[in-house]
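Running co-folding for tryptophan.
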Amino acid sequence: MSKKIFSGVQPTGNLHLGNYLGAIKNFVELNNEKDNECFFCVVDLHAITTKQEPKELKKNIRETAATFIASGIDPKKSIIFNQSMVSAHSEAAWILSCVSKIGWLNRMTQFKEKAGKDKEKASIGLYSYPVLMAADILLYDTTHVPVGDDQKQHLELCRDIAQKFNNDFNAPEFLRLPEPLIQKEFSRIMSLKDGLKKMSKSDPSDLSRVNLTDDKDQISNKIKKAKTDPLPIPSELNDLSQRPETANLLGIYSSLKNQNLEKSINEFNGKNFSEFKKKLSEILIEKIEPISKEIKKLLKDEKYLDTILLEGSQKADEIASKKIKEIKKLVGF
Ligand code: AMP
Ligand code: TRP
């Protein structure tokens, strides 16, 4: 069966290995499956839920599109576009926010993490962010949404919102309930400096992540400095449970090699970290350096990137504007 795929990445800079292994690598595989219809969206409306510098935002929108293409998404096969160019996203988000319950949004853990201690000072946009995400997905009758593990709760909410809308307006199956596509293993890549913290764009330490624009030397330096523990690589999976940094580095290695954790443990069992880190750097450089070089090349051609986004937005708009018309009709407008 052909799938309709939708996913989004925020243009907030510093796209990293976690974004790649948790999401973008999967986008490329879905792009390559024959009959899929794929939408990969640069979610700039989501980006402004926290303060952005306008010039930086513009640069980051192009950089995110360049990262998609450099990673292997073919703009002739998949639709690459930015959210703010398709007005149906904002319109649908408002309508859906009127069927969503405050109680549902109050449970969202990402808001709690991002808003920090002083929730009164967070923007309303940051709070209602998952409703906009539901609008993104539901406008395209999406069947599958590839994301990292941290987006699971938002997808459950999306299904609740769709169901509530269909019930409220007596339109069974009008909004399609999407399935999440979350990798079984390695769906949460952790910081290189703290195995209990997610690898994140906003971590003040650049050494905590491998950026997709890092060159060979930066990658090997970051792996050299990555936190480990004093023990050698274990021989049993169970021995990793109390060793988050080791588990994370072996997870990164396994994911890049497309092999399971057991196979990697067997490869390095009993060896010391310097040997493992050397191999890890090698595979990272092999996989990430070509992407990094291609991103830099593409960024020099702003016109090309702007054309991809414009053409993608036109195609997305054709589909989304039909759906929002139907939504408005059901609501009674
Ligand atoms: P964001 O950068 O928040 O727009 O995230 C873009 C995609 O990358 C989403 O599907 C996230 O779930 C995924 N992602 C972000 N950080 C990580 C991470 N540390 N590990 C795995 N996936 C991640
Ligand atoms: N919220 C997602 C994130 O931060 C990005 C996103 C926005 C998204 N809209 C989406 C992901 C729709 C999947 C589908 O990672």
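Result summary
DSSP finds 13 helices and five strands in the chain.
The mean pLDDT is 96.
Job closed.
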